[in-house]
Design goal:
The chain is mainly beta and about 1000 residues long. Helices cover about 10% and strands about 50% of the residues. It has nine helices and 50 strands. The strands form ten sheets. It has a 22-stranded antiparallel beta barrel. Strands 10-15-16-13-14 form a five-stranded mixed sheet. A hairpin with a 5-residue loop joins strand 39 and strand 40. The relative contact order is 0.12.
């Protein structure tokens, strides 16, 4: 081998050796410097402690990732010294450093990302859903965790103070009494002013068919652009309730609550000793001391022991599932013999068919039974009247009885009669969904709702009031209604590049049938039959037996179109055409259109420099027309004959028969009340902690229905229902939610809702139908005030305006003085009608709801309250009690003795008070004990309800109903118009209890 070749071989060997060495060293160094791998397992929870299936866990800087399983668990091999990121839609991303000391099992708790959560939240909009970020109308949404908890006897209570502009007014502590619901003010004088209730897509149902524990979410549609899809039933807003359904996995949940309720506020009347001191000081020789020492208010009261229990079972797979629940409520009232007992159950199930789940069947069945004992509200007036020295029982153990007008023993009234009511509710639906042609979804939904109320009353022959005067009195009543509905609609959704298109067309048919009957008899030779043998009564009078039946139909066609460009520019348009049998021949059909647009400003390029603090800014504008046909009775457009008091002699039969005569004039032009509404809104999110919305709205209602006087002739009847008036409601709303502190162990969330509404009657008359003023707020039945009214409905004023004489205080002699029209102080004898003036109204200037929630580890604390400010109330109870003629026979308030009043009460501004208040609604403290078995958990809690009321109002409670005693009928419902006695405290003082509860929630997962 020559030297040249030798050098080449040596060079090759050297080079090869170096390469091998370098490769060896490279692997060696890689082995030396490669990070040690560590298997990390754990569970991901949300801020409430619930597991998060489907959360993403990724090793930072790599593609090494996994997702949590159904139980929220994950396992991932991660380099020591590296870190993992855990993320979930609607939650803030959390980074965890992995070191050699990191435990093999870790728990990760993600906090809600308020803005992101709102963006992806799905909202019910009627016949479909949308992401909240895509909404163009005014819609407020609540999840089940946001709702009011506690001893709930009427489902609407869960919304109290939770939605800006939505007022839930519960004027009584009676468990069987309902609430009045108003959204952005009332829109009618004669029809219902309550929002339309939609449950799982079924419109117009009784809200109490759903129990609070079964609610998944509530969406409140406020403006016409959102509610116009419901046409003639959407003028007062729409509340859409979505119930819980079967989810993946198997779980059993139990919730139990036991509570004690007691009365903290009564009217401060003279005690027996104070009454005796008064008699001694005045030397009144006519006073009779009966030797007792009775607080008549407390004699009617008791400590209320209540309980509720709910058991639910959930089972679900990817293609099928069901959920069922059973609830029992026994809500005892703080007035003896009152309360509400309810047994409820529901079941819903779903089944998918097809390889891609093209077909879905969905069914639901809800049922409940209520039992309660309606209260005779006359007991409250008697409890204020009776001399406190009268004992409840006499020396023989019988109820004490002292003769006198309105002087019956209230405990006897409460005890010696039997009043049993029972209500049955049923709602069932079956829904079929079919996906076709990729972008279309057809839905067919049929439903049936039935509601029946049975009432039974017996007042024995020895019972005061009707029992003695009628020699025994018995009554049986029965009412029922049924709604059968069918819906067929098709949804279309398509995304093409930056364009998102949605469309809906549908058809709806509703049939409503209602009927009822009643019978009463008096004159019973024995009380043994109670109300079970009306035929045993020997007194029969005309009107003792009655029955009725009615039917109506509503046919509808509707459509909606949605368009979005680049997620920034949004447009929605809807139209609905309704045909109703309720209205006149010339106006059977009505059309209700709406349109709304939104601009997501924060997504624009020129807003990029705000990303650090402004997460979301969206402007919305909407306008639409809705109608109101609920609450208007059937056959109102027709001529109706009825039996009168006249009779005629029939020579053929030789008998006298009752004569039929016209009872109602025909009106072929009768139609819907139409509400046109403009809404301007702003949605915003700041610093990834604060979210909120601001709304301005203007509602104008035309064609208000009212019964007008008409001349005879040409009309056969002197009144007619006609569309004439106009009413406006204008206001603003603010909703704020803030995650003040978001930590792993400690969090603090606060929310605030504010609403301001101004209502005004714009018009009441036209050339054909005229009225200058409508008098309301009757004072009939109060001493010395027969035929008097406290309020007016007139052009330029809101509904519930107090109208009367302005008080100038007391004169030197203790007589009440008043201002006349000239501003002079005069006695009541010098007053004329022209001296009356506006004394304020029942409409609040501001409504507010506030809530705060704290968590520390497994502890939680929740506080909520609500208030109404600026409204006036007539304290008619106080007006009647402050009468110098009452003593010594009747009782009076403590402060009357020092008031100096010497004149009999007369309705004036002296008795009208500021009824502003703020109520500390609930305070709850809980502890959640995580159980090791498949994320099962146990929570125990202590809750207080109605703990404090901040007010200057002198009555028992400042939350005065739109209809007090006169508005409550045998079924416990309130008159929905709000015109009978709005804002009048008139002996309707069923006290609202303060309640302390202990509860337990237990969930077992399998």
């Amino acid at each position: 081998m020559n030297s040249k070749n030798k050098k080449m071989v040596l060079h090759y060997m050297w080079t090869t050796k170096n390469m091998v060495f370098m490769i060896f060293m490279l692997f060696l160094s890689a082995g030396m410097f490669a990070q040690e791998k560590k298997q990390v397992s754990g569970t991901v929870y949300d801020n409430t402690g619930s597991v998060l299936p489907g959360a993403t866990v990724i090793e930072v800087g790599t593609r090494n990732a996994t997702t949590t399983d159904f139980d929220g668990k994950f396992s991932l091999s991660v380099a020591v010294g590296g870190s993992i990121e855990v993320s979930f839609i609607g939650s803030t991303t959390q980074k965890v450093l992995i070191t050699a000391a990191t435990k093999p099992n870790i728990d990760v708790r993600l906090q809600n990302d308020g803005y992101m959560l709102a963006e992806v939240q799905v909202v019910s909009v009627g016949y479909g859903t949308q992401k909240k970020s895509d909404l163009t109308g005014a819609i407020s949404s609540l999840k089940s965790d946001d709702l009011i908890k506690g001893t709930i006897s009427s489902t609407e209570q869960v919304l109290q103070g939770k939605v800006a502009g939505l007022n839930i007014i519960r004027p009584s502590g009676d468990p069987a009494a309902g609430s009045t619901i108003r959204l952005r003010g009332g829109t009618s004088l004669t029809a219902s002013n309550s929002p339309l209730i939609v449950v799982d897509g079924i419109a117009g149902v009784d809200i109490n068919i759903v129990q609070p524990s079964d609610i998944k979410s509530v969406d409140v549609l406020k403006d016409a652009s959102a509610t116009a899809i419901y046409g003639s039933r959407g003028a007062n807003g729409v509340i859409i309730i979505t119930t819980k359904s079967g989810t993946k996995g198997v779980s059993v949940t139990y919730s139990g609550l036991s509570s004690v309720g007691y009365v903290t506020d009564n009217l401060d009347l003279l005690s027996a000793n104070q009454w005796r001191a008064y008699v001694r000081s005045t030397g009144n020789t006519d006073a009779v001391d009966y030797g007792g020492n009775t607080n008549w208010q407390k004699a009617l009261q008791q400590t209320a022991i209540s309980q509720s229990h709910t058991l639910s079972i959930n089972s679900g797979k990817t293609d099928s599932g069901f959920r069922t629940s059973l609830s029992y409520l026994n809500n005892e009232g703080v007035i003896k013999s009152t309360g509400l007992e309810r047994l409820s159950g529901n079941i819903n199930a779903y089944q998918y068919l097809g390889d891609n789940k093209e077909v879905k069947f969905d069914m639901g069945l809800f049922a409940n039974v209520d039992k309660w004992h309606p209260l005779d509200y006359r007991i409250f007036e008697r409890s204020y009247n009776l001399n406190p020295t009268i004992p409840v029982y006499d020396a023989n153990g019988k109820f004490s009885s002292v003769s006198g007008t309105l002087y019956e023993n209230p405990v006897e009234i409460l005890t010696n009669r039997t009043v049993d009511n029972e209500r049955h509710r049923l709602l069932g639906y079956f829904k079929t969904e079919v996906k076709f042609l990729k972008d279309f979804l057809a839905v067919a939904n049929i439903s049936y709702e039935h509601n029946a109320v049975k009432g039974s009353t017996y007042k024995p022959s020895y019972a005061v009031l009707e029992g003695i005067t009628e020699n025994g009195y018995a009554q049986k009543t029965y009412t029922e209604f049924a709604n059968a509905q069918g819906e067929l609609y098709v949804n279309y959704n398509k995304v093409i590049d930056k364009h998102t298109i949605g469309a809906l067309v549908g058809y709806s048919y509703l049939e409503n049938i209602y009927e009822g009957f009643g019978a009463q008899r008096s004159g019973f030779v024995t009380d043994a039959f109670s109300y079970n043998n009306l035929g045993a009564g020997y007194n029969y009078r005309l009107g003792d037996v009655y029955s009725y039946k009615g039917k109506s139909n509503l046919v509808s066609f509707y459509a909606r179109a949605n368009y979005a460009y680049d997620g920034k520019y949004l447009l929605t348009g809807t139209v609905r055409r309704d045909g109703s049998s309720r209205f006149g021949e010339n106006n059977k059909w009505g059309t209700f259109p709406s349109a709304s647009v939104a601009w997501k400003v924060s997504s624009e390029e020129f807003m990029s420099n705000t990303k650090g603090w402004l997460d979301n800014l969206k402007f919305r504008v909407g306008y639409g027309v809705t109608g109101n046909q609920d609450g208007i009775g059937e056959y109102k457009s027709l001529s109706i004959l009825g039996v009168g008091n006249d009779s005629y002699y029939d020579p053929t039969t030789g008998t006298w028969s009752l004569a039929y005569s016209p009872k109602q004039n025909p009106n072929p032009d009768l139609k819907w009340e139409s509400t046109k509404q403009l809404n301007i809104g702003v949605d915003f999110s700041l610093f990834n902690r604060i979210t909120g919305s601001f709304e301005y709205y203007s509602k104008n209602t035309d064609d208000l229905l009212y019964t007008y006087e008409v001349p005879q002739p040409p009309y056969l009847v002197g009144t007619m229902l006609a569309n004439v008036g106009e009413m406006s409601n204008k206001g603003v709303e603010l909703t704020l939610n803030a995650d003040i502190i978001k930590g792993d162990k400690f969090s603090w969330n606060a929310n605030l809702t504010l609403g301001h509404n101004v209502q005004k009657i714009e018009k009441l008359s036209n050339p054909t139908y005229k009225t200058d003023v409508i008098y309301s707020g009757s004072l009939h039945g109060l001493a010395g005030m027969s035929g008097q009214y406290s309020q007016i409905i007139a052009e330029g004023y809101p509904v519930g305006t107090f109208w009367g004489f302005e008080s100038a205080g007391l004169g030197a002699d203790g007589k009440m003085l008043y201002y006349n029209a000239a501003g002079d102080k005069v006695l009541d004898t010098a007053l004329v009608d022209g001296d009356k003036r506006d004394l304020g109204n029942i409409q609040p200037d501001l409504t507010m709801g506030v809530g705060m929630n704290f968590t520390y580890g497994n502890f939680d604390l929740g506080v909520s309250g609500y208030g109404m400010f600026g409204q006036k109330a007539l304290n008619a109870t106080n007006m009647m009690l402050n009468d110098p003629n009452r003593l010594p026979t009747f009782n009076v308030p403590d402060d009357f003795l020092g008031s100096g009043i010497t004149s009999a009460p007369k309705y004036s501004s002296y008795w009208i008070e500021d009824a502003s208040f703020f109520r500390l609604q609930t305070v709850s403290v809980g502890y959640t004990l995580p159980l090791k078995y498949k994320n099962s958990k146990l929570r125990i809690y202590l809750m207080g309800e109605n703990l404090a009321v901040f007010t200057s109002y002198k009555g028992v409670d400042p939350e005065i109903g739109l209809n007090a005693q006169d508005g409550i009928n045998q079924t416990g419902k309130l008159d929905e118009t709000g015109l009978a006695a709005p804002g009048i405290d008139r002996y309707n003082n069923y006290p609202r209890p303060t309640t302390i509860s202990v509860g337990l929630n237990f969930t077992l997962n399998n």
